[in-house]
Specification:
Structural class: alpha/beta
Strand order of the largest sheet: 3-2-1-4-5-6-7
Distance between the termini: 27 Å
Shape: globular
Strand content: 15-25%
Number of strands: 7
């Protein structure tokens, strides 16, 4: 399918690794000019080399407003930013009673406020020219809260509220704001998560992977980890859909046991 993205500029935050890199690759495959950020230049260089010739990257820490401005300014050198994907996120498996206040605030800052900061800049320009699309990358945990990842679940739920609120600002325009909710996917960070789970259970990563869907995600209809490339294509489709606005699209393989 042709999404008419040739030479359109897209920012994928945290696009130098994991799901972000897969999303950036999917946009690049559609002809877009892809801008990613990260905190390590060599990692960024490696990522953009793997994504393709229209990929570019810059070191920017989006917990700092000045770095948000730097990223947006860098991307704008290639043309108007037509798409913004708020992908930056952290997660971990921790006993609720062991999570300190500072860690709750850190999760909110990284998982929610990075998207708020860069969207504050990008959305204003999109509304001025009456064109653009923003996608927040949330999680099935936004709806199916996870007890051993309470701070993560909180931040993912908050993203749904922020995304819908920003969509309300686009009423009557050609600008759209949506959310995609992935499920368990085969990224490097998920492998780290499995290691943490294995440590908690005093087991091996191999055993945890073997029994994960039986023990932890029995409601999954796929019963396997999702390929990040498939999620990348789902983000592209949502971002380009002219009639999707204010939506929270589930792409979690049926983990959320609900018809709605």
């Amino acid at each position: 399918m042709d999404f008419n993205m040739d030479n359109k500029v897209v920012i994928v935050t945290g696009g130098s690794s994991g799901l972000g890199k897969a999303i950036a690759g999917a946009f690049h495959d559609e002809g877009a000019i892809v801008i990613v950020n990260g905190r390590n230049q060599s990692k960024i260089d490696e990522a953009i080399a793997g994504i393709g010739s229209r990929a570019h990257g810059i070191v920017a820490d989006l917990t700092k407003i000045e770095d948000c401005e730097k990223l947006y300014s860098f991307a704008s050198e290639f043309g108007p930013v037509e798409y913004l994907v708020n992908n930056i996120g952290i997660f971990e498996s921790v006993d609720f009673f062991e999570i300190k206040d500072e860690r709750w605030f850190e999760f909110f800052d990284v998982n929610v406020m990075t998207g708020v900061r860069i969207s504050r800049i990008a959305l204003r320009d999109m509304l001025k020219r009456d064109s653009g699309s923003i996608v927040f990358i949330s999680s099935d945990a936004a709806v199916k809260s996870i007890g051993w990842m309470a701070h993560y679940s909180m931040s993912k739920s908050a993203q749904l509220g922020v995304s819908r609120a920003l969509a309300e600002l686009t009423k009557g325009t050609n600008v759209r704001v949506n959310t995609l909710m992935p499920g368990p996917s085969a990224t490097d960070s998920v492998q780290t998560y499995f290691q943490e789970m294995a440590d908690q259970k005093k087991s091996t990563v191999e055993d945890v992977l073997k029994n994960y869907f039986i023990e932890s995600e029995p409601s999954s209809l796929l019963q396997h980890l999702i390929d990040p490339k498939d999620l990348g294509r789902a983000v592209v489709s949502l971002a380009a859909n002219p009639i999707a606005n204010g939506s929270a699209q589930r792409c979690e393989g049926g983990v959320i046991r609900s018809a709605f």
